[in-house]
Amino acid sequence: AEAQAIFGLYSLGVNTNRDTWAYNYQPVVLRRNIQRLIETYNSEVDRWKRRADQTARVDDFVLYDDKQIKWSGDLKQALERGIYADFAERKVRHALYRPFTKQYLFFDRLLNNSVYQFPRIFPTPASEAENVVICVSDVGYRTPYSTLVTNLIPDLHLLASADAFQCFPYYVYEEDGSGRRENITAWAVAQFTAHYGRAVSRWEIFDYVYALLHHPTYRTRYAANLKRDLPHIPLLGDAATLARLADAGRRLRELHLTYEQAEPYALKREYHAGVPFTPEVQQLRLSKDKQSLAYNASLTLHGIPPQCYEYRLGGRSALEWVVDQYRVKTDARSGITNDPNRYDDPEYILNLIGRVITVSLATVAIVAEIATIELG
Hints:
This protein is α+β, with helices and mostly antiparallel strands. It has helices at 19-22, 27-49, 58-61, 73-80, 118-121, 186-196, 202-214, 216-221, 223-228, 239-257, 318-325, 348-371, and strands at residues 11-12, 23-24, 92-98, 101-106, 133-137, 147-150, 153-154, 165-169, 171-172, 181-182, 268-271, 285-286, 292-296, 299-302, 312-313, 316-317, 329-330, 337-338.
């Protein structure tokens, strides 16, 4: 029997247990890291199969070398069962690691601790062109309640490193990408249709939900329930209320999915004399008043509008997520460097800063509209 719920299937975001190895901004670096890890792991499987001491404990047996491999309990269990890892180009996928932060992910059941339902949500790159998921704070969340849509595989900690996020897709598929079907239940369509007295499409329901999850009063009124349970969605008002919320939700969805196409907000650029301009970033730094951003040694950006900081995801504003994530990081244990600079699009990060400000201001305006709708 079909669930009495709006969405038939939902899933936590992907949990790799080895983010340094399984994610990277640079696909070439990701492939190299993963191939090294696979080679090390597979040779350990061989060695385990040939071991003389059949009573050996896997924990005492395996090679511990942070520059070659990152172990986890599930990977050791796979080794004990003699399961080999394999590299395939199709497993290198786009993912949304943090808000407005795309990285490449090696999407693989063995080398990701848990892929949950994502092989059925984004089975192939083609599914990214049509599917969308609403990600929301999971029960027991510690940072402020948050939601964001994406058309890429999302990380478990998408909107706050301290919390997990549950994802509700519009479509689900077979794992080979065939058999696409809508994930909003017939039961939900019947509830909406009965309440609003007209035919309600599944996209209207999806967008209504996305708008309501942004409603400030909804978040505060139901905070205790949201900590204990997945969101319950009230049917508000009449058909006009439905239309207003669905329209606001659609605009938010389109805004958040197409953030890379937004018009960059015009910031004042201060070029520093004697330092030749380069668009390369090492680490972005906001000024104390958060109205300026030191981009690099050659450029500072001024005139960040304070209202943009009102658009928050978890404990940070969208812009602060970008500032936090877009820096060159070298992991001390593995020696792996993750460099966000785009050599195919050198001004990507510079433009992204302006685009995320534009998206933030537009989000704040739409949420203000949503806030005027009575919860009853």
